[in-house]
Design brief:
TolC-like, 11 helices, transmembrane beta strand, T1SS_OMP_TolC, membrane, 465 residues, OMP_efflux, Outer membrane efflux proteins (OEP)
Length: 465
């Protein structure tokens, strides 16, 4: 009994200890969620982006055009079965000239197995070539979809980072203005300040409250934009580490080389070139209406009581031959189709030419954005250092009596403005660099990994070499 009571007491103490531990754990703050970096976002987007998944499905559907076209040139085998009950009445004069009526009730049947091998079908040959070009265009369109996904993802990710930076800058500016406001009030109460200092600090502080609200709304919006691509809630993002960032001008340094490369491998242009070939094969299909078709036909059939003169008679027939169909006149249909196909070729060629020029302009624009972005970021980095020094100098000047609190507030506002411009310049440089790679069809996972290395490592992950 004593052992049992001691065991019960031990179990009770254990339960109380466990309950206390759970209560303590509930009071502890939850660990922060791991920050999402660009590479993680890319892998999630590959799986979850609805637009890209639709493009993949469209490409898979387009690939079936080749086996379908090939099937039109391969042998086809068909079987047919016919069985029917027949009733026939025959009226004919007899030997005396009188009308005699006879009735026949019988069952007829026919079984046939037919093999057909196309030998000459110009339409089928053109359709097969057209299907191959259609698949080429579909693969290029899928590649374009991937490039578009990467650019959309990078744009959404760095828009969210910019909104995050702007929100942090507004908070820091609000805290600085609050501190200056309190200092101005204390100085005024001590008879050392002016009412103007208080009013100016109050006005700036009130303005930052409105800016904070706008920044919070923009932060939530940009994160939701990213969420629509990766289909996962975005709580925290890996921030850009300026020390890791590599500022490099485009290589090669000649925009014309980038344009030439883009005209050759840009996925959208490749898809449009495939469309031109598809249109040319459409012309061959139209002209095929002038050519004969030749098929090799083999058939094995068995029939019984085919008609009322072969009742109870069975036939076993084997047929091997060539079937030729020669078009003579179709009312101008083939000629009209030919004219229509020629117009389709012209349309496809002009669409390609228009887009080729646009792609060249876009490449030149992003090339300049990257080249000038390097210089702009470096200039703003120097401006940031100068703005920080200006704040320090104004604070020292205020202590020496040569600067006012308004001068300090102006210097702080200028520093925040420079920091904001610097963040915009950095993110614009990154996105322009990725867009340039996308326009020449070279943006891929290694390119994303290279940019991802510029971000601060998420919690729990070691820095990548």
């Amino acid at each position: 009994m004593r052992g049992t009571a001691h065991s019960a007491l031990s179990r009770g103490a254990a339960w109380r200890a466990a309950a206390a531990a759970l209560g303590l754990a509930a009071l502890l703050p939850a660990p922060p969620a791991a920050a999402l970096d660009l590479l993680d976002s890319y892998r999630l987007a590959l799986q979850n982006d609805a637009r890209h998944q639709a493009s993949r499905a469209q490409a898979a559907a387009s690939r079936e055009a080749v086996p379908q076209a090939r099937a039109q040139l391969l042998p086809s085998v068909s079987a047919s079965l016919t069985r029917s009950r027949n009733s026939t009445e025959r009226e004919a004069p007899d030997v005396f000239g009188r009308t005699a009526t006879d009735s026949f009730d019988y069952v007829s049947s026919n079984y046939a197995l037919t093999l057909r091998q196309p030998v000459l079908r110009m339409y089928g040959f053109a359709q097969y070539r057209q299907a191959r070009h259609q698949v080429e265009g579909a693969e290029a369109t899928l590649d374009r979809s991937l490039q578009d996904l990467l650019v959309r993802l990078a744009g959404a990710y760095f828009d969210a980072l910019l909104a995050q930076d702007q929100h942090a800058l507004v908070i820091a500016q609000k805290e600085a203005y609050a501190a200056q406001l309190e200092a101005s009030k204390r100085a005024f109460a001590a008879g050392q300040g002016t009412r103007t200092d208080i009013d100016d600090a109050q006005a700036r502080y009130d303005l930052t409250l409105a800016q904070e609200l706008e920044a919070s709304q923009n932060l939530g919006y940009t994160r939701r934009q990213l969420q629509t691509i990766i289909d996962r809630p975005v709580d925290a993002l890996a921030a850009l580490d300026p020390a890791r960032m590599e500022l490099q001008p485009p290589q090669p340094a000649d925009a014309e080389e980038w344009i030439a490369r883009g005209e050759e491998v840009n996925p959208e242009l490749r898809a449009l070139r495939a469309d031109i070939e598809v249109a040319r094969q459409e012309l061959d299909k139209a002209r095929a209406g002038h050519y004969p078709t030749v098929d090799l036909v083999a058939q094995r059939s068995r029939s019984e009581s085919e008609n009322n003169v072969s009742i109870d008679t069975r036939y076993l027939t084997t047929l091997v031959g060539v079937q030729v169909n020669v078009p003579l006149f179709a009312g101008g249909y083939t000629v009209s189709q030919t004219r229509q196909a020629l117009a389709g070729i012209e349309r496809a060629e002009q669409q390609y030419e228009a887009r080729r020029r646009e792609v060249g302009q876009e490449i030149r624009k992003e090339f300049q954005n990257v080249a000038e972005g390097v210089l702009r970021v470096r200039a703003l980095e120097q401006a940031e250092r100068s703005a920080g020094q200006a704040v320090f100098s104004n604070q020292k000047g205020f202590q020496a009596g040569t600067r006012s609190r308004i001068d300090i507030l102006d210097a702080q506002q200028q520093r925040v403005s420079v920091k904001r411009d610097l963040a915009v310049a950095r993110y614009r440089y990154i996105v322009s660099r990725l867009r340039l790679q996308s326009l020449v069809g070279t943006l891929d996972e290694p390119g994303i990994e290279a940019v991802n290395a510029w971000l601060a490592p998420p919690a729990g992950r070691a820095p990548e070499n």
